[in-house]
Design brief:
The chain is of the alpha/beta class and 380 residues long. Helices cover 54% and strands 11% of the residues. It has two domains: 238 residues, Spore Coat Polysaccharide Biosynthesis Protein SpsA, Chain A; 135 residues, no CATH class. Bound molecules: guanosine-5'-diphosphate-alpha-D-mannose and manganese (II) ion (MN). It holds the Pfam family GtrA_DPMS_TM.
Length: 380
Amino acid sequence: MNIACIVLPTYNESENVKILLPRIFEQADRIASHELHMLVVDDNSPDGTAGVVRGMQARFPRLHLITGEKKGLGAAYKRGFAHAIAELDPDVILQMDADLQHSPELLPLMIDLLQHGFTFVIGSRFIFGGSTPDFSLRRRTMSLVGNWLLRNMGGLPSIRDCTSGFRCIKAELLKRCDLTGLSTKGYSFQSSLLFELVRNGAKVIEVPITFPDRVRGESKLSFADQVEFLFNLARIRFRKSSEFTRFLLVGASGVVVNLGLYYLLTRLFSVSLEIAAPIAIEVSIVSNFILNNLYTFRERDSRNSLMRRFLYFHVAAGVAGVVNYSIFMLLVKGVGMFDMFANCVGIAAGTVVNYLMNSRITWVGKKKDGSFPIDRRPMR
Ligand code: GDD
Ligand code: MN
């Protein structure tokens, strides 16, 4: 019979695994298509989680354990996936948390969906029917903003929960992925794995889950994981979209044009700065437009006429400028942030808004080869 293997990373979860493991194996009878195995990946938890698991292996012969040094959630998953594939040759691999925040009762449904043509099932907190009843406003906001960024920057408009830790993956699909370069920590591992799966052609479906707070033990994901998440977001984007990279290069050239022209006009031609600045701005917008049209979006078959693109490009620049300025003022006056730093944040936000407007409005349309640009690609 085919094997489904749950990879369950643990760090200081001795109290939870005692309750969770029997509940998981109770589900085995409800899964007709697969033999259910479990691989616990424990990172030498000081609370003796590994010992508890070993103590249960006599009762559950399909319970496996590997131990290692603590190097982060992603590192544990990578080791777990490799071990499961090498030792058990499963047809299905699942990811799950050990702290009872993921309900084992959902396992049969998730595995069953793979029998219906899907290759990647996500337990989702953010689709209709899903919920996070105990999330603080802060955690909820963070999670939603994180997911919004992933969708809009990473280019997966139809996935609502990109960081969920409850997933069911066709082993074939996972084997096609190259996990070596993926980030090794918490949220970032989840999202970079998701992008890698999608890049390799995953057929995705989300099923709603309730994600209550943990009762025993504590969360291991830290502030550092959130910072890594942001860096990782940029990495995902660069990897996926040459258009965004080209857009940034053109933007940088615009800065040079702007500053250079301003210098020439004021220093060599003694034009007053009130007149030199707007001329420099407009010329850099025009040069950016020409380069974006010939270079950044060269693969797009835009629906808009050249004149219309030229007009929209100006509107986008205006909106981006307003966003940049508003965020800058808010951070300096409202939050009291150091002005140079606030300016960087404002410029980054303005650049993203500018890119999204141009990608989705100015140059909207299919690519010339008939495919969809990355942030407009339908999932299925
Ligand atoms: N082996 C190992 N090594 N396991 C770890 C490590 C590690 O370094 N860090 C965390 N774990 C285990 C925990 O023991 C738990 O079983 C599971 O991974 C999830 O860790 P939590 O610390 O409970 O994470 P969380 O509840 O804050 O975050 C959950 O939700 C996030 C999205 O909101 C997880 O599912 C994340 O993966 C998810 O991104
Ligand atoms: Mn948890």
